[in-house]
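Continuing the batch. This is chain 6 of the set; chains 1 through 5 are on the previous pages. Same settings as before, nothing changed between runs. Recording input and output for traceability.
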Amino acid sequence: MASPTGATRRRRQLPSAAPVIRPRLLSLAVLATVALAGCSVGDDAGSPPQLGASSDDEEAAAKLGFPASATKNTIRVSGGDAAADAAGVASAVFPAVGPSTRPTAVVLADSEDWQGAVAGSVLAASPIGAPILLSDGGDLPSASADTLERLKPKGSDLSKDAQVIRIGDKPPKPSGLKTAVIEGNDPYERAAAIDRFFSAAKGRPSNDVMVVSGERPDWAMPAAAWAARKGDSVLMARRDSLPDATRKAIESHDKPNIFVIGSKAVLSENVGKALSELGKVRRIEGPTPVQSAIAFARYDQGDFGWNVNVPGYNFTVASTTRPADAAAAASLATRGVFAPLLVTNRADQLPKPLESYFLSVQPGYEEDPGEAVYNRAWILGDDKVFSLPAQTRLDEITELIPVQVNAP
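Output for chain 6:
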């Protein structure tokens, strides 16, 4: 657990840095919106948390949805698949009850195209700020279709008034909405095309770019949250080679800072050497995908990196078995949440490195808890990818607790 002095010491703040959020003041309306997008926690997939459950209803406790939908310090977006998770997050981040709470555009990616979800996450950043919904090939699942209809995107003048931005040719073109499409023959070309699209919208290429594996989603997922947070593009490489599309995209950034996300086991020395000809290369890594995501959450280099080494932050946790959840994580890295994405490779319990990291940033207080900072964790997926015991443990080690500084 971090010391109370660590909890209150000054941190380097990113622009529009994450506010201190008190997790006990949860909005039940938001929780219901998140859970109703596709809850399948527990034995009955048809009984998600419901608003207005009566106390004399025989199933009142189950209908309220706790503790699966939320605990003191966790919120679960309990979709049975990534498309439901993305719809739930989009509804939580954009309630769409008035013009100011509707997005200008929505991104559509295919649920099987995890590369498109990761690279497309930069479109969730300013100035476009688009949530990502997922298709099932050429069809829109009900959760995605209903959410898109409710969001009624206003149209982004930064993308020729498009209301929907499609990544690749698989997502359908919704009727009645103006659309743009970002094309490419393979994931590397699509990532490069997304980079060009976003650079044009922003008016300039970013000074920093990330390079991730286009073959190993478990290592690439955490880049999605930072792309959405900062607007730094995600480009992709093979294990031992740098695709031409990626090379040309990086050249357009004119000697940027290049951050390689992942170990040499997934992006080799050959890739690093090729990248070094295009800009300053730094590698963020750990021996496993879980540890690599933690290293990214801790990383700090200039204005790049979360620098989450003390309490007082939001976090998102997703399973490596569901890589398209990177799309949902993107919106949770923007719009006042600003959560880095951590990953787990176990459903039954927290991996030890992940548990140790949360313990290292657990908030504490000496006298007045009202003067302390708080942590909150968003969980993506149902109990099949993140069990209730794992959620309970996460809640426990995220909780604000009293400490004694001079205890023997």
